[in-house]
Specification:
The complex is a heterodimer of chains A (417) and B (223). Chain A is of the alpha+beta class. Chain A is built from 13 helices and 12 strands. The chains are: A alpha+beta (417), B alpha/beta (223). Bound molecules: adenosine-5'-triphosphate (ATP) and magnesium ion (MG).
Chain lengths: 417, 223
Amino acid sequence: MIRIFKIALRNLMRYKRRTLLTSMLITLGLLMVILFSGLAGSFKEMMIGQITDSNLAHMQIHKKGYVSSIDTSPLNLIINQKGYKTLEKVLKENPDVEAYSPRIKLSAMLSNYTETTNVRLNAIDPKTEIKVCPNVSERMKFSGGQIPDILLKPGEIIIPEKLAAGLKIKTGDSVVLVANNKDGSVNGLNFTVAGIIESILGPQGKEGYMHIKDAQSLLRMGKPEIIEIALRIKEFDKLDDVYADLESALAKFKNEKGKAVFEIHTWEKLSPFVNIANMIDLMTISMKLIMIAIVLISILNVMMMSVYERIREIGTMSAIGTAPGKIMGLFLAEGLSLGFISVLTGNIIGIFGIYILNIYKIRYAFGRQENILLSPTISFSELAWVSAIVLVISVFATLQPAYKASRMEPVDALGHV
Amino acid sequence: MSLVQIDNVSRIYQTGEVQVKALQDVTLSIDEASFVTFVGPSGSGKTTMLNLIGCLDKPTKGKVFIGKEQVDTFDRRQRAAFRGSTLGFIFQAFNLFQVLTAYENVEYPLVMIKNESISKRNGKVLKVLESVGMLDQKDKFPDQLSGGQKQRVAVARALVTQPKLVLADEPTANLDKKSAVNVIRLMRAMRDEFKTTFIFSTHDPGVMEEAEVIHTLEDGKLV
Ligand SMILES: Nc1ncnc2c1ncn2[C@@H]1O[C@H](COP(=O)(O)OP(=O)(O)OP(=O)(O)O)[C@@H](O)[C@H]1O
Ligand SMILES: [Mg+2]
């Protein structure tokens, strides 16, 4: 076995330039995958973090049917106090849930006493909201520039920047909110503008913020009711598992008709960004396919040449009694060694490249946020996987030439010039 | 005692419409430990004969015995195994493995065919290299050796497995007169030392003289 690899390596060294070119090509393919996965993975992680930590949270629970009619912010699909208590119990019992926060989503008319416009609002409990969305204040500007200890006090409102610019509203100004409740009756309340919020992409990106108590009185709710519960889990990687647990726990609550009362969605179902995340995954897979094609074609090409150049040598081996399986093994070892050399250099350069990218951190802007640091990482298991793929493909690409070599008739092969 | 028995053997090549009778109804026997040559004009069937005895080819008709085995009935795999265990080969163009040193070339059949352990094979390789007078050149690669030296290494590679029979198709055709005679004399000395049967073919009258038994072929027939 050792001898087989020794012969294989010496044969590779015999055509130094060709071996070098091929292994460089494969190394390049591998590098492309390693660096791209590292960068894209870090970008994706950062993007998901932005969305979930500032607005969406990891999951949201609603009254059944809410998400499918989310565009109209329906007020009839509410969770009453009893329902909220029930849900709290479920969430407290689940060890993977880190925090949860009640919210009301509503749309209202906002007036600065001269002009009136429509606004969508996210009514929150600031104390719990900050636990669910730790970066909620990141997009907000407050008077004086300081983020207050309590994001919002009752009587305060944070409005989207486009709207503030359009109505020429500044922080500290007083505005009126007018809203219809679910019975159709109208109510209006006075608010002070405490802050301005930058908009981001997506349907939730242009919402203003108000205190949940204010929303409940604006909507004349007799008993406090809510629209959604946003929740954060301890380990984001366990999203699917925790989701499955909670979903089955919630499925137990049924109305008189036997239909489920609540629904739960992960951020993926609530944000169009999931498409970008999927796109990134798709691109990573495409990169891997391209790499596989490079490995397959270059090794197949080199090994076919190797077999062709060495027909007489194969004839000699066969004539003096080398078993066909051994001849096949010799060529397979050669293809595998070529793959292995490339994998080794690819990994070394790739890890070094990621290290360099982490030293000279790449800054870029995403949405309204600038100066986000991109720190590419790649896991050991990812490296091992990609390397294993290259090795398997190397052997696979060598199978046909190696088989051809092992099937040669010694008389024909010896006569070959 | 006869080692090789050729029994009414014909070998006919069929290329398209054309039939070439490379050997026609040849019967002969070759004794153990003899030093035999096949001679004859180009195209007379020398290579065909050596290929049949060397289990590289099958007769169209007739039987070939080597020792107790009827080798013409062997399949591909059996022939390869038989060549590895019982036969040795020396080629016109030396056919040493370019990437292996002289020592490693001689060692090759022991490692790759006989799967022998290092301790067992080391002594054998050194002994046979010494017999062919190439011990001092053992670490050179083939392209650092002269034609005559290469053929000596090839003789050592053919003998290292202690085969019953060594076949050599025109082993001296790529050598100058002096080296040619030297290589043939080396082969005969090896026959004396190891009692191995040698069968070779040649065009060269000087080489022919060194043989003990001469079979002449003409148009595929013994004369
Ligand atoms: N593979 C083949 N296909 C068709 N005809 C062949 C083949 N091999 C040999 N022949 C023919 O068989 C006959 C005998 O050939 P062979 O090679 O045995 O001759 P030879 O005595 O070795 O000649 P040389 O001295 O030139 O080597 C020749 O007529 C040759 O053309
Ligand atoms: Mg010939």
